[in-house]
Specification:
Elements lengths: L1 E5 L5 H10 L3 E5 L3 H8 L10 H10 L3 E4 L2 H5 L4 E4 L15 H10 L7 E5 L7 H12 L5 E5 L9 H6 L3 E5 L3 H10 L8 E5 L1 H32 L3 H9 L20 H14 L5 H22 L9 E5 L14 H11 L3 E5 L4 H8 L4 E2 L3 H4 L5 E4 L4 H4 L3 H7 L4 E4 L15 E3 L5
Parallel strand pairs: 1-2, 1-4, 2-3, 4-5, 5-6, 7-8, 9-10, 9-12, 10-11, 12-13, 13-14
Helix pairs in contact: 1-3, 5-6, 9-11, 9-12, 11-12, 12-13
């Protein structure tokens, strides 16, 4: 099949590469000339574990191409995937759909023959209706259907999730569109659950899923705070809870709060939709406010380690919102860093992959280190904010030797199993007194 993908970000690029690997002819479209030039030259513009090899192979075999021209990319396509950003409005927190609608208006005149227009971006309920209206106004003679294909790729695991999805959701109101998508997802038939639903249901499924997971994260964080006060161990509690199949063990890891490009944006958008339709989603709204407060609480937890010492230095390990990616959008780590900077903290930071992206936000407000140990030079406390595996394997003897005060605040519980206190550290993790 010929497939066009509009957008080359953390959804569009892994999806386009994966579809090319399955044997399709894929053209990825983006208006950013610098980004497209880099991709055409064989240089990835994002970090995603396992993507590089697939990307290079499919460029070499000619199945994966890039262009800034919508006309060139869309012409003759069987399926056009819209995978552009839907950032939150800074005031209302609703999903900003300008890029979705602009893509629809631009692709409409280029449609030749029957085409399935698939919204991959996370969009509010009813967006597909408006995309359809835009295309019909722009090109009344076009033969097309608009469908919803919510994405469930986890950043850091996008390649794995593309080839081994736990489900594929297809929201289509037309049998003709359904037939095309059955062909596109043919390689997954019999291997994973493929769910066919109405378009508006598919649009809801993505938001409902992310909001539920965000609430689960917030719940276990609140339970971790309770355990710290009550003398229980959140790890034992979470294990006991997770053995109940109705609950499950995933997303029961306490930490500094949820973040990233999806959960904060999608929970806010879902809450806005609830108010719009007169069906308030109070559990989601409570999770949003509690998660926002948690970042400030975690910053205070770190700052208490240095008290009023204006000369104290804090080493920060981790800036990406999670391991396996260089994405810092809505990163709890950066939000905690921002809170500490407001209090005048002196910070030296390190992340294995996200330094360049973090530097664009933090500028000269912090010092930048070349490694974990380098960040800890002369530090009075190390704060672990992202769960990179290298942090768990750090040489504690070498770490202690370079620190002024051997103290660790581990907001990801990376070192808990190694019992740093036996190595002479003052150690604080999440969920255990």
């Amino acid at each position: 099949m010929k497939i066009a993908v509009i957008g080359t970000g953390y959804v569009g690029l892994p999806t386009g590469t994966g579809l090319a690997e399955l044997g399709n002819q894929v053209v990825c479209i983006d208006k950013d000339e610098e980004k497209i030039a880099a991709l055409q030259a064989g240089k990835l513009t994002i970090f995603e574990d396992g993507l590089e090899e697939l990307f290079q192979r499919n460029i070499r075999n000619g199945r994966l191409k890039f262009t800034t021209s919508t006309k060139e990319g869309v012409a003759g396509a069987d399926v056009v995937l819209i995978a552009v950003g839907t950032p939150p409005d800074p005031v209302s927190k609703e999903a900003d759909l300008r890029y979705i609608y602009a893509a629809a208006a631009e692709l409409a005149p280029e449609l030749t023959g029957y085409t399935v227009i698939a919204t991959k971006s996370t969009v509010p309920v009813g967006t597909g209706d408006e995309v359809e209206n835009i295309i019909r106004r722009q090109n009344p003679l076009a033969e097309f259907d608009v469908v919803s294909l919510p994405e469930f790729l986890r950043e850091g695991f996008a390649v794995h999730d593309f080839f081994a999805p736990d489900r594929i959701v297809i929201g289509a109101d037309s049998e003709k569109a359904t037939a095309v998508l059955r062909e596109m997802y043919g390689p997954f038939a019999g291997k994973t659950q493929i769910l066919f639903v109405r378009r508006r249901s598919a649009e809801t499924i993505k938001y409902a899923s992310n909001a539920f997971l965000a609430m689960k994260i917030h719940y276990i964080n609140e339970m971790a705070d309770f355990c710290e006060k009550a003398g229980a161990d959140i790890f034992e509690v979470a294990k006991g809870m997770g053995l109940d199949q109705r609950i499950g063990s995933r997303f029961l890891n306490p930490g500094p709060g949820y973040g990233g490009s999806c959960f904060p944006k999608d929970t806010n958008a879902m809450a806005c939709m609830g108010r719009k339709y007169g069906a308030p989603l109070t559990l989601i709204e409570t999770a949003i406010s509690g998660n926002d407060l948690r970042k400030a609480q975690m910053a205070e937890r770190i700052l208490r380690q240095v008290g009023d010492n204006e000369k104290a230095k804090i080493a920060v390990w981790g800036l990406a919102f999670k391991n396996g990616t260089d994405d810092v959008r809505e990163s709890p780590a950066l939000q905690i860093v921002g809170q500490m900077l407001k209090h005048g903290a002196r910070l030296r930071v390190y992340d294995p992959k996200a330094m360049d992206n973090a530097r664009k936000i933090l500028g000269d407000a912090v010092e930048y280190a070349s490694s974990e140990i380098d960040a800890a030079q002369g530090a009075d406390v190390v704060a672990i904010l992202t769960e990179w595996e290298s942090f768990a394997d750090v040489d504690l003897t070498a770490l202690k030797a370079v620190m002024r005060q051997p103290r660790i605040v581990d907001l990801r519980n990376m070192l808990k199993s190694r019992d740093p206190e036996r190595s002479g550290f003052g150690y604080q993790c999440i969920g255990k007194a």
